[in-house]
Amino acid sequence: MLKRISRLEEEIAEMRARYIHHETDKAWRVCRTRKALIFAATYAISVLLLFAAGSPNPFFGAFLPVAAFAASTLVLDAAREWWLEHLY
């Protein structure tokens, strides 16, 4: 009986650890810091690629991919909210 209780306690501890990991992962996926890092990385990579391609103004041209990503995240956030409210 004590062995079974001990095993159940271990399983509960494992479930709690998975829950905490899941919650932190979910928080990271929706945080603004993550989006800002993606924006910055997208801009930097775009500048480098446009500069290597000989673009006349790579710093300005690199805003297009960042703006597209920002717009897509805003649209997807709104679409998710609508889906949760109406279809889920």
Average pLDDT confidence is: 91
Low-confidence stretches: none
The shape, in one word, is elongated
How would you name the oligomeric state of the polypeptide chains in this document? single chain
Instruction: Spell out the helices and strands N to C.
Output: HHHH
Number of strands: 0
Largest sheet: none
Question: How would you portray this structure in words?
Answer:
By secondary structure, this protein is mostly helical. It folds into two domains: 1-30; 32-88. Helices cover 89% and strands 0% of the residues. It has four helices and no strands. The protein has helices spanning 2-30, 32-52, 58-61, 63-86. Helix 2 packs antiparallel against helix 4.
In short:
The chain is an all-alpha fold and 88 residues long. It has four helices and no strands.
Structural key phrases:
88 residues, mainly alpha, 89% helix
How would the blueprint of this fold be written?
Elements: H1 2-30, H2 32-52, H3 58-61, H4 63-86
Helix pairs in contact: 2-4
